[in-house]
Amino acid sequence: MNPIIGVIYHWLGGLASGSFYVPFRGVKRWSWETSWLVAGVFSWLIAPWFFATLNAKDVVGTLSETPGDVLFHCYFFGAMWGLGGLTFGLTMRYLGMSLGMAVALGYCTVFGTLIPPIYKGEFATKLLNTQNGRWVLAGLAVCVIGIVVTALAGKAKEGEMTTEQKRDTVKEFSFKKGIMVATFSGIMSACFSFGLSAGEKIGVISKAHGTAEIWTGLPVLIVVLLGGFTTNFIWCMLLNVRNGTGYEYLASHQRHPAHGKDESAIENPIDAPGMEMAEHSGLGSKSSSLQIPRVGNYLFCALAGTLWYFQFFFYSMGETQMGEFKFSSWTLHMASIIIFSSIWGLALKEWKGASSKSKGLLYVGLGILVLSTCIIGYGNYIGSEGGH
Predict the structure, then answer these.
(1) Minimum mean pLDDT among 31-45, 77-91, 198-212: which range?
(2) Burial of 329 (0-12, 13-18, 19+ CB in 10 A)
(3) Which value, in Å, is the radius of gyration of the alpha carbons in the chain?
(4) pTM of the entire structure?
(5) What CA–CA distance (Å, rounded) separates 153 from 366?
(6) Who has the most CB within 10 Å: 53, 58, 179, 272?
């Protein structure tokens, strides 16, 4: 157990999550649903099995020995996380990006961090009644403040847009609907954390099979991500049928212009900070040629999907280093995603033309988020043997 190393692993996970949009820039003349599902096959099916088999011992035996109710809860919460993603786009539609992200991410961070210890009856004993627990709570509070400040930066940036740009950003503003949908989306997306917590038994069984402690979370991801794959697969298939894009998987030429992405399904709050990056992805890009670069599209989607998986690959590693406060990993994860995806946003010139005030708020927000990861890491450190 080494909380400092754990924080570094979570930063690497955040870097992977904040970067996975970049390969999508190479995808040409595929619709959002086609690209997302192909990448998802690698994210939610191939990569979890490959890396678990590579690093953990007897994965099939571990899962076969896992009680059915544990498998069910992992799968169920994974599917619920998928529902959170399917409603996140509506949050953006009703509240706009800055306010929508602040509400959804806030719910996702707080619920994903606090519900597991509350459910296990450990909230008071581990968080309120111990010095290190109070540090972890302080880190969570600072993280939420950082989310709000970065949202204010986004709002300031929106305020500098033209009327036409604002209309494109918030098409159907409705505070009441937006808050209701953001609450649902944020809580459902936090279910990923619940699924990981529910799968702790799988990690114990995997360790009994000889798996090193640092890899014991990998078999859990297989089950949770299978649940997420189910809801995303169903939705993407429905979109393929509705939009007439199902032919794209095998076609060599485009039949009609591909739309960019379905606005009722914009990833989920876990990926939300990098959402604007999808606008630079090239999905549905205009070209005089109708030829679909199938090999290239599959390769770029495979790379994007594998990068997406790596966020939880490193998450599972970081969680093993946090000791009895492993549930604090969720806050570290969310903060790290926002930090690195915002850095990518700056690198891709998404903030080009923004005022110094907007950029200043963004920098302050990122600084607060970095501070939150340090506070949580310190709280875990003083609770470890090395901290005594």
Answers:
(1) 77-91
(2) buried
(3) 20
(4) 0.81
(5) 10
(6) 272
